[in-house]
Amino acid sequence: MPKTRQAPAAAPSLPPPSSGPNGAAWFPHGFQFDAHSHSDGQLVYAAAGAVATRTERGVWVAPAHRVTWTPPGFEHAHRFYGSTDARLVTVPADLCGELVAHPSVFAVSPLLREALLALTDRAEPRPGAVRRLLAVVIDELAETPEQSLHLPEPRDDRLRAVTVLLHADPGLGTTLAELGRVAGASERTLSRLCHTELGMSFHRWRTTLRVHHALALLSDGRSVTDTAMECGWSNPSSFIDAFTELVGQTPGRYQAESRGHRR
């Protein structure tokens, strides 16, 4: 397995994601690429750390054991959490039809991880090698169910006023009725809008937002207890349950694995 490299002190040298070629670089916590689009598809894998991809349809977060997929033509931005070993892989447009036609996140199997690292760790050893590795990547993704930590965003101005407040402070404990008074809508109206525009309940959306925030804090080295408190949970146990349900592992295990990848 290729060794994960140490993070450099200098600014990352990886070209912007819109420029095309596969590449690898370490990014500091909070580093971001502004909104852009490209004619090919793109996979972004954080071999260590985490990456969030934002589009007009919302935000997708990929911890170190998942990979983000953005099809051609979607304007999107990336933000990195923790010291992130980022791997960017371009999928030529003629191969994109074999993957889903919307942004998503997939689990990374051991074989998929090795293929992504090989595509970004070295120059093409023989003509056609990159294309053959991409075929392995696509085969793995085609057989992997989506595991999207997707946070959709509303279009309705009233519900958007609520989500903007919560984005600014994910730990805010205000009820939907109280938020409705700020947004000029009843609790019932906002609850209905959550289901029609977000495809989930208000509680589920806020929990997902808090888990997104928790991933960023844990990736930056914050303790599980401090993360739980800052993200609005009244005790670490309820935070651990919610995090495990959405991410597929406990926050402690996620943090330990992230540290292991960095080493």
TrEMBL record:
InterPro entries: AraC-bd, Homeodomain-like_sf, HTH_AraC, RmlC-like_jellyroll, RmlC_Cupin_sf. Residues 160-257 form the HTH araC/xylS-type domain. It holds the Pfam family HTH_18. Residues 1-21 are annotated as: Disordered. It comes from the Bacteria. Keywords: DNA-binding, Transcription, Transcription regulation. This is AraC family transcriptional regulator. It comes from Streptomyces varsoviensis.
